[in-house]
Amino acid sequence: MVTQAVSQRYLRLVLVASAVGTVIEWYDFYIFGSLARVLSQQFFSKANPVAAFLETVALFTIGFLIRPLGALIFGRIGDVIGRKYTFLITLTGMGLSTALIGFIPTYAQIGLLAAMLLFGLRLIQGLTLGGEYGGAITYVAEHTPDKRRGYYTGYLQTSPTIGLLLSLIVVVGTRLALGDQAFNAWGWRIPFVLSLVLVVISFYIRLRLQETPIFTEMKAKRQTATNPWREAFLSANIKYVLIAAVVVIGQGVVWYSSQFWALFFLQTVQKLDVVTSSTIVGIALLLAAPFFVILGSLSDRIGRKPIILGGMALAAITYFPIYSALGRVALPGNVNYPLAVFLVWILVLYVAMVYGPIAAFLAEYFPARIRYTSVSVPYHIGNGWGGGLVPFITSAAYAHTHSLGSALVYPIVVPAVAFVISLFLMPQTHMRTMWAKPAPAPAMGGER
């Protein structure tokens, strides 16, 4: 029986290796969104700029929608073969597909084939990310002590925010170094190609890791799942998967509405240039990043549920006034930087509330033998489908109505509904232990 967590020194290596790799994967994923306007000009016809932009956003969204399939595929591999090698595979696939985007000929060179190649690589990005993040959550959680799981996984939860921040820094830095003309002509390729260097570094660090002690013991005792899909989805466990999916859908919509759509809003609604909008969002992300760890740690004491649901409620209540205020202080040629950064910081603080404790909650909610699969699928349904639709729905709604209220209907209604449902169905998990004999998967119709 597993009785204690690993040494502090090795735990730090686990955190660094997992977080660095995950930051790079999120950088890979979000560099696409950060360059949506440039990509729309490079890979689609320029006859209708608005349609070209929405087509690019649709491709961006495809990467989210495919993620649950990646979660199914790689979740099964992770529960049968192991956590470590699975997310080495996903890291490699993500890095190569991102780098190759930097080498695709443009629409002017090869026509529609350019968009088709971009579509294919975007699918690979989504599939591999679908396997990466659930694996990272599982891997880190299975090394942490029970009473500090929220604190340690909170570091991992900063990785999407830091990945987005890194993408903005690289884009802005490259644009400033080359100038707008050179950047729009060919410099936009550099952030994609840079992914190769980052992935090689991360791959080397991750090779130093061992398998998690919990999975190692299960494998030694032949307690690993033989059919994770059946055990996760054709048993009583499906009830917990569905509850987790509702919670994560609310969390996912808050994440993308508060963080990523803030960038879209500044660029597409307020018409700010890339450097100005990225500077505002980047500073806010940097200032808010520590709160993922702070709130994760707080959830170790008061539980995951009140913090996550508090973030959903605040977001649903205050989105319209915050975005309205942001629209008034972030006008082209007249930007109130301190106030704009403050408003975006509040939005990202909501993200820290819903996202900081979610990794610990998911890892604690499911039995070890099917944890990779059970964590990954609801996570990517919530973030991939629920959250991933935010950029497309909000951008399309605003393009057709030019109404901020219409654009914010989805970001407000979904967290509100998820809050009400989760208030009754989401359990407190912070008192559960993972350092015990691995629990068997529940039988069909039984209770865990």
TrEMBL record:
It is found in: Cell membrane. The chain crosses the membrane at residues 12-32, 52-73, 85-104, 110-131, 152-174, 186-205, 240-262, 274-295, 307-326, 338-363, 384-401, 407-426. PROSITE patterns: MFS, SUGAR_TRANSPORT_2. One of its GO terms (cellular component) is plasma membrane. Keywords: Cell membrane, Membrane, Symport, Transmembrane, Transmembrane helix, Transport. The keyword Cell membrane applies. GO terms for molecular function: symporter activity. It is a multi-pass membrane protein. Residues 14-430 form the Major facilitator superfamily (MFS) profile domain. InterPro entries: MFS_dom, MFS_sugar_transport-like, MFS_trans_sf, Sugar_transporter_CS. Belongs to the major facilitator superfamily. Metabolite:H+ Symporter (MHS) family (TC 2.A.1.6) family. May be a proton symporter involved in the uptake of osmolytes such as proline and glycine betaine. This is Putative proline/betaine transporter. It comes from Candidatus Segetimicrobium genomatis.
